[in-house]
Amino acid sequence: MLILLAEDDPKIAKLLIHLFKKDGYQVDHAKDGAEALLYTEINQYDIVLLDWMMPERSGLEVCEILRNRHFNGGILMLTAKDTLDDKIMGLEYGADDYLIKPFEYKELLARVKALSRRSTKKLTEDKIILGSFLVDRAHKAIYFKNIDIGLSNREYQLLSLLMENNKQIVPREVIIDRVWGLDQEITQNNLDAFIKLLRKKIELVANDKIIMNVRGIGYKVEV
Length: 223
Fold this sequence. Notes:
Layout: E1 2-6, H1 10-22, E2 26-30, H2 33-42, E3 47-51, H3 59-68, E4 74-79, H4 84-92, E5 97-100, H5 105-118, E6 127-130, E7 133-136, E8 141-144, E9 147-148, H6 153-164, E10 170-171, H7 172-179, H8 188-206, E11 211-214, E12 218-221
Parallel strand pairs: 1-2, 1-3, 3-4, 4-5
Antiparallel strand pairs: 6-7, 7-8, 8-9, 10-12, 11-12
Helix pairs in contact: 2-3
């Protein structure tokens, strides 16, 4: 399950990310409402956890925008606002559930599991075809004209992430979080070097430069 946590308090975010990962969940972290919307344009989340009071855009605004975009995953509001009117407002803006701060992690986890069961989000396809490339999610392999490119697990994670967002820019921070995780000390130079080696491996089979560097932002695949 892939979760997006939109929380501007770094201490709360760090703790929740640690606990969720300990329980086997994948978690992306957005530090404000605008970043949360950017993440949802790039990835398909099963559950979105929204702090109500965030910079740039409030959790309420993000919730409304996501529903207008037909996001059908679960949305859980996290807030200190505890009046009945606040709860009703959150639900009317599209939230599925509402948890008042401070809360116990066990209760949050139980609500996330319940939302996951209720979610109508469709499972993504096992295979993606992009031109002469085939992404085989079941076997974690990528082929060019039926030839296995021969990627390591981390190379597969990175290239499949870019291919799933074909022709869209994936920010460097998102790549590092999704491929290495928040606990790893990966620098921008490390990422650039890794991409360089990955390009060489692709070119040995496909003889084509498909990974583009978008200066100052991230990378994208053009297939």
